[in-house]
Structures are given as structure tokens and as C-alpha cells.
Amino acid sequence: MQESPPSCPIPRWQLLKQELKNVGPEEFDxxxxxxxxxxxxxxxxxxxxxxxxxxxxxxMNYLGPNFLEQMxxxxxxxxxxxxxxxxxxxxxxxxxxxxxxxxxLIHLDGGINAYSE
Length: 117
Fold this sequence. Notes:
Structural class: alpha/beta
Order of helices and strands: HEHEHEHEHE
Oligomer: single chain
Strand order of the largest sheet: 1-5-4-2-3
Number of strands: 5
Helix content: 25-40%
Radius of gyration: 15 Å
CATH architecture: 3-Layer(aba) Sandwich
CATH topology: Oxidized Rhodanese, domain 1
CATH class: Alpha Beta
């Protein structure tokens, strides 16, 4: 009888999240109020963005075909505030951005769903 491999008790996206600067809605709003134009990034789909987004956000669909090209156009010296709906896609987007040399990333922990909690 073959044993199944041990399962990881922590989902991968939560492990990746530990490597980011995660803030709640109150701190995110404070940082957002002082952020430069174009530095608030919504990484949800275009349809989700059209339905609702935070004021001043720029849409960069993490699952879209142009995400890597859009990411390459970002200034590596700038600070970016990144969010999605629940925090999972934005964790992955931030991880890609970090690996591409964008070090100043602030992640909205829990995504925009955190505002309703």
C-alpha cells in the first residue's frame, strides 16, 4: 500500500503572504490618501474592476494576458499599494512583482472584503 505524501498544513498563498507588508483597511486607506497617482493597483479582472474599485485605483488583471508587460512598466523605486477581492490574487501578484524587483509593496490583507468585516 502506497502512502500519500504529507500535506502542507499552510496553503502556499499564506506562506507567500508572510513575505509581504500586510496592512488592514484603516492603514491602507491612510497610505492610499497620500499615495501618488497610478500607485494603487487593483489586480482583479476587468469586470470586477468595472463593478467596483477603490477610488484612484489602476486595474492590472493578475490573471490577464498583459499582466507581466504592465508589471515591467512599473517604476521599481515607487511604492505600490496592491489589492484584490480576498487577498489571494494580490498575494500572488505581489510575489511576482517582488521577484521582478519591485520591493516597495503594500498589500491589503483580506482584500476589499476586509472593508465589510
